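Slide 14.
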Amino acid sequence: MKTRPVIYLGLGILVVAVLVYWVNPSNLIAQTTKISLVSIAGFAGSILAFHFLRSIRWRMILGAIREDPSLKNVFWTNMIGYAVNSFVPVRFGGEVARAYIIDSKEQLGFFPSLSSVAVERILDLLAIVSLAFIAGFGYATTFENASLMTILILTGVFAVAMFILVLVGSRNLPLTMRGINWILGKLPLRRAWRERISGVMQSSLAGATAIGRDYRLLGLTLTLSFLIWVASFLGFYALFLGVGFTAPFAALLIAIMLFQLSFILPSTPGNVGSFEGFLILAVTALGLGQTDSTLAVGVVSHLVSLLIIGVLGVVGVGVLGLRLKEVFRIPTLKQKASTTTIK
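Slide 15: predicted structure.
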């Protein structure tokens, strides 16, 4: 198990090496040096805006569970979670770390906190797919690409279905729990297991469905979700302009939204290779070409992202009075604790 992350990292490095060889190292260097410090600063600013807006949205969602959580705690917890996702080879490790830390700081409950992160992901999917479809009307070729449309439609259907589930559950949580308990009762599980799973589900739904009971909060979080991903896109747009990319604005918006969907999939530690590979795949799938300049944007954006997330994650550990070693062990420890409790 311990060697698997090393193998995946090695595969990621191999992908990067193949891409660099494919575009020719001299071409990659030439394209990279085109990107001005102004473009890089614009991208860095978009990352900061992205995370600040995410923290405001998460605070609103958490506020439906417990009134007025500290924005300071929420922001730094968010940055620590992203750092764990980027540098610790544990699937969903950052989400677990965020829930654990914000619970310890705000006493919200681990499972309600974790379910609030799940709500964020649903809102993200809705915003990303919506922006891609809206941009499609400005770049009609998208609707002629069966593969891309299939990806967008399937993701959109899943996001809408989960969103409806949250809304329905929020209107009648007792009825939802009766349905869950009925299903659990039909499964060949020990009573202790059923009670444990039922308790976890009820606690999780209490956090996830809180947003659906306040339509003003729902509207604000949806609006923030669009702003979050527009901010992310504008950072990439600045870098693409830096390498002289001439593709239509709408086409690039679709490509970046498709690229963002790739983070749903399993990836290498730190997204090494998968980040650059999926960015090139999303851009070339729309027939935009220019692989060497796209790889240059991928390498620069990836390095800048990791630097900012790493620095802010470490700062967040200090600000919240945590220990770096413990923070990066949280995902594994929490998983072991959950397994022991069920047994």
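Speaker note: The chain has one domain: 3-7+15-342.
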